[in-house]
Amino acid sequence: MSLSRHAMEITVMVAAPMLLVALVIGLVVSIFQAATQINETTLSFIPKLIGIFVALVVAGPWMLGVMLDYMREVFTGIPAMVS
Description:
83 residues, 0% strand, elongated, mainly alpha, 2 helices
């Protein structure tokens, strides 16, 4: 039970940087579109794509470290789960 709870916590931690960047960029672009009355679909897609890529480059090493630590913990805990 604690293993699945920890897995969900890790999932939220790893996904949070990219989701927050997409949320902020989407909000800014929506305000811009409402102010200028420009309803172009690519205007919201391209900045989000670039922002998520930048977030992945910046937070990628941290995200990889968190996932590796979790997998190391899971693999070292297998003998305790079996017995």
